[in-house]
Amino acid sequence: MFFQRFKEEERIKMNNWAFAEEAFLRSTNLNEDLGDLTVQVLSSNNSTPMILTDADGEIIDYRNIDREDADSAGKLKALARKYGQSNEPIVVRHNNEVFAYLYYGDSAMLQNIKYFPFAIILIVVLFGTVIFLYYSADKNAEQNLLWAGMAKETAHQIGTPLSSLVGWVEILKQENVPENMLEEIKKDLDRLNIITDRFSKVGSMPALQEKDLVAETQKAFGYVSSRSSKLIRFESAIPEKPICVKLNTELYNWTIENLVKNGIDAMRGKGRISLNIEEETQWVHVQISDTGSGIPKHIQKQIFKPGFTTKTRGWGLGLSLAKRIIEDYHQGQLRIKKTEIGKGSVMQISLRKV
User: Fold this and answer.
1) What is the mean pLDDT of the segment spanning 185-211?
2) Half-sphere exposure of 202 (CA within 13 A, CB side)
3) The last residue of a domain, from among 133, 156, 190
4) How far apart are CA 73 and CA 17, in angstroms?
5) 83, 53 in Cβ contact below 8 A?
6) In this predicted model, what pLDDT tens digit does every residue of 233-275 receive, in sequence order?
């Protein structure tokens, strides 16, 4: 509507110029004074490109045309035809006969106005995108603070009964409880201490040290396999030589254990879990595969989001924290390498070698 209004006003301006040209022709014939208004109208057009041809199409005059387009009659005639396709030519009459045709194009202002609505739409889209990204980032930051706070609070709550259990172990020693039983209890207490330490580090940047990825992965993988059902078959294909990366061993081992346990859950406690480590020039890839139900396509992008879970019980924090540990703390990547419904999934951790 806005563009069309300007186009109509430009048409009126060019009609006025044509009327002034007719007045000029009459005054020349009658040898009359041309008049200030007619002169002013004829000289006022300094923006709209125009070409004036005679009744046979030969060029009489042109204005506001680029030098490259006006260096030959052929180019001017082609440009006149182009103008005629977008704006109907105006007939200039003299003595009630067709004297000339006025061809005109869109002025620079009109051409800019043509793209003005698209520019407004683009600005609105960009502005909306910025607002969306801002609120998304703000929401994600709020969620991260929430999960970090919950993890730290969990570590704090575990710490109190854990201290009490250590005291009970000392009492049991005095009661002549078999040493092998105390040793197993102590292992579980050590394990709880490790878990508490892991949760306390969520939300803060942990220290990374140069470690052998093969040994650490094998240790975490072996811990879960030794405490799992005999219905689960554990397999591994790992390099015999060390591969050094920057690791926080507590958090990395927790990630491996979490991925293995998720695979066991996906298989409903029966199937095969495989560990594979592949080395490249700059990267090393740790792959944990299962023979479970697979991950449906419509939830593959959601499984790493905080709070998302397919289990009847659970907070949906495991994979979210695992991704954060690998990508935010270790500058690596955790992704679904492969999944197939009814056949299983392969989760891959990628870390840069030292």
Assistant:
1) 74
2) 28
3) 190
4) 23
5) no
6) 999 999 989 999 999 998 899 899 999 998 998 898 899 999 9
Buried b (16+ CB within 10 A) or exposed e, 280-308: eeeebbbbbbbbbbbbeeeeeeebbebeb
DSSP 35-92: -HHHHHHHHH-SSS-EEEEETTS-EEEEES--GGGGSSHHHHHHHHHHHHHHSPPEEE
Judge contact between 80 and 102, C-beta under 8 A. no
Structure tokens at 243: 């591969």
Specify the 3-state DSSP secondary structure of 158.
helix
In the block, tokens 């470690």 appear at: 211
Residues 241 and 325 both lie in one domain: yes
CA 93/CA 339 separation, integer angstroms: 79
- The string of DSSP letters for 323-343 reads HHIIIIISS-EEEEEEEETTT
CA distance to 212, 236, 295, 303, per residue, from 271 (Å): 29, 14, 16, 22
Question: Is the pTM above the cut of 0.70?
Answer: no
**Least confident segment among 13-22, 39-48, 342-351:** 39-48
16 touches 41 (CB < 8 A): yes
Q: Are residues 36 and 102 in the same domain?
A: yes
State whether 32 and 56 are in the same domain.
yes
pLDDT in tens, 294-328: 999 888 888 887 666 766 555 556 788 889 889 98
Asked whether residue 232 falls in the same domain as residue 105, the answer is no
Structural domain including 20 reads 2-114
Angle between helices 116-174 and 179-201 (to 10 degrees): 160
Query: Do 240 and 316 have their domain in common?
Result: yes
**Residue 200 in tokens:** 């306390």
Distances in Å between the alpha carbon of 33 and those of 18, 38, 114, 214, 316? 18, 10, 41, 102, 92
Read off the amino acid at residue 96: N
Distance CA 4, CA 118 (A): 15
Residue 242's Cβ-count burial label (10 Å; 0-12, 13-18, 19+) is exposed
